[in-house]
Specification:
The complex is a heterodimer of chains A (229) and B (294). Chain A has 10 helices and no strands. The N terminus of chain A is likely disordered. Chain B is mainly β and 294 residues long. Chain B is built from 1 helix and 13 strands. In chain B, strands 1, 2, 3, 4, 5, 6, 7, 8, 9, 10, 11, 12 and 13 form a 13-stranded mixed sheet that branches. Classes of the chains: A mainly alpha (229), B mainly beta (294). At the A-B interface, helix 2, helix 4, helix 5 and helix 8 of A face helix 1, strand 6 and strand 8 of B.
Chain lengths: 229, 294
């Protein structure tokens, strides 16, 4: 990866948009060098934040368009039964969907980066800041554009779902890979430790939360069922 | 560098495709589901029956009060008023060929009152009422929808609209409408009251009772002529009141609001809404258009 690294670390010139396009492309092609450059060049927090909002917002908008189509189809289909019953109140569904997706993902972003930070910093004794990791995680989400593409393709034709799933799988692996690279560069630790910090740690935390939830559910059901469960 | 810029460009292109798709797909690519056909609305197999009561023809010209009792078990009832002073009642009943026929009769009491009954088990009943009689009585439905258009030709004393189980009621009140009291009730469903009036014939009250569902009141009145008040209670659920149009006390489960200049208005329209489980929305409709009436 010598040549791309040299390219990435070379002083780039051009308009902001050109630099942005190069940076996004470099995240795909040379994440090692790009993340090193982002760490060293003190790129602002707003660009990765805007990237996340754009990616999740657009995916939310595509899903909301599905919701609009389904709601319109259902209200039209049951029109002969419901007559003039107004369904205008269902218009809130798309906006709520987009808002919930954005808020939910911002929370996931903060929590997952927080877990990775705690493990990399305090378990593996790495050196790096949490805010810097948030920035890198913003760029690590760039392959999420494949998820948007998959959703659009499914929307155009349901029969393309295998290809859409293929794109989703690629995007997932790619994002996990980029998150590991981000942790590696931000904390200057080995890639194995970075993978544990960025993926295994958050997955374990997720499993613990889910386990506690199921335990609570069992106890709650058991109390209603008189202790038989 | 070219490869990076190209990939970056593809990334931006995907985002743009997503934006355009989200914006255009509901218009260009609507999902089509088969429309549910009810027995009474089956195209091509429907039967249309008519029943009319006309002054000087089959009803005494002295009739001024009509007690109307219209019942449909499954389907819909549409009530309109015409400007025909001789018309007492015109009932058009559409139903499937396998459904039972309309049963209608009338009985005069020898003075100025008439009792008119219509009954259809399953179908769509369109009632057209005249402009020279005052109507009262009840419209009854078990499952379905009632739509009533009150305009300058309407004249109602006390009328009850009752949906026993599930359905919807749409009541449009426009300029010149005249009624004393309307009682709207249903077990489960939605009720929409649209008031778009520069003036109304006389002060009237509307009472609504919905056990489970929602009530929407859309108001657009000339507040100098028509004072409108809404008092609503929700047992479980919530109320949304637009307080730019209405003033008064509002909480999540109760409201008592009036339009501005309520006290000085010539005529008053008082709405009382009781909702068991569900919600209520009290809001201005599209901006008031002077002279609008149908």
């Amino acid at each position: 990866m010598g040549k791309p690294e040299n390219e990435a670390t070379a002083k780039e010139s051009g308009s902001y948009f050109t630099l942005f396009l190069n940076r996004i492309g470099a995240v795909f092609l040379a994440p090692d060098a790009t993340f090193s450059q982002i760490v060293s060049s003190k790129i602002g927090f707003w660009e990765p934040l805007a990237l996340i909002l754009l990616l999740i917002g657009i995916e939310g908008a595509v899903l909301a368009s599905f919701a609009v189509r389904v709601i319109s189809a259902v209200t039209n289909a049951i029109g002969p039964v419901t007559g003039i019953t107004p369904f205008g109140f269902l218009a809130f569904v798309p906006s709520v969907l987009i808002t919930m997706m954005i808020i939910g993902f911002l929370l996931v972003w903060i929590i997952v980066a927080g877990i990775a930070h705690l493990i990399a910093r305090y378990v593996f004794r790495g050196r790096g800041s949490y805010v810097q990791l948030l920035k890198l995680y913003g760029y690590a989400l760039v392959p999420y554009s494949l998820v948007i593409l998959g959703t659009v393709i499914i929307g155009i034709n349901w029969a393309t779902w295998p290809f859409a799933i293929f794109l989703n799988v690629i995007a997932t692996f790619w994002i996990v890979l980029l998150m590991s690279v981000a942790v590696k560069h931000n904390y200057d630790i080995d890639v194995g430790k970075a993978f544990i910090s960025s993926f295994i740690g958050p997955m374990l935390a997720w499993l613990i939360v889910i386990g506690i939830f199921w335990l609570w559910l069992l106890v709650a059901i058991g109390s209603f069922a008189g202790g038989f469960v | 560098m070219i490869a990076r810029a190209t990939l970056g460009g593809i990334f931006v292109a995907i985002l743009l495709v997503g934006i355009f798709y989200a914006a255009l797909s509901p218009i260009l690519q609507p999902i089509a589901l088969p429309r549910i056909q009810m027995p009474w609305s089956a195209v091509g197999t429907g039967v249309i029956e008519q029943y009319s009561l006309v002054k000087g023809t089959n009803v005494s010209s002295a009739v001024r009060f009509v007690n109307l009792n219209a019942t449909v078990k499954f389907g819909g009832i549409l009530v309109l008023f015409s400007n025909d002073p001789n018309l007492v009642l015109k009932a058009v009943f559409e139903h499937g060929s396998s459904a039972s026929e309309l049963s209608a009769n009338s009985a005069a009491d020898g003075s100025d009152s008439l009792q008119a009954n219509t009954y259809g088990a399953t179908g769509s009943l369109n009632l057209t009422l005249g402009s020279s009689c005052q109507y009262g009585g009840s419209l009854n439905l078990r499952f379905g929808a009632v739509t009533m258009q009150l305009d300058q030709y309407s004249n109602i004393g006390k009328l009850a609209i009752k949906i026993n189980y599930v359905g919807g009621v749409l009541l449009n009140v426009t300029s010149g409408a005249s009624f004393e009291h309307l009682d709207l009730s249903m077990d489960v469903g939605g009720l929409q009251l649209n008031v778009n009036a520069e003036n109304i014939g006389r002060s009237g009250t509307i009472t609504t009772n919905v056990n489970m569902g929602g009530v929407i009141v859309n108001a657009a009145v000339n507040t100098a002529h028509v004072g409108m008040s809404v008092e609503a209670d929700v047992d479980t659920g919530g109320l949304t009141v637009d307080q730019t149009y209405f003033e008064g006390t509002v909480s999540n489960t109760h409201c008592s609001v009036k339009t501005h200049d309520y006290a000085s208005a010539n005529t008053k329209l008082d709405v009382r809404a009781n909702i068991g489980a569900g919600g209520g929305i009290i809001q201005p409709s599209t901006s008031y258009v002077p002279g609008f009436s149908t």
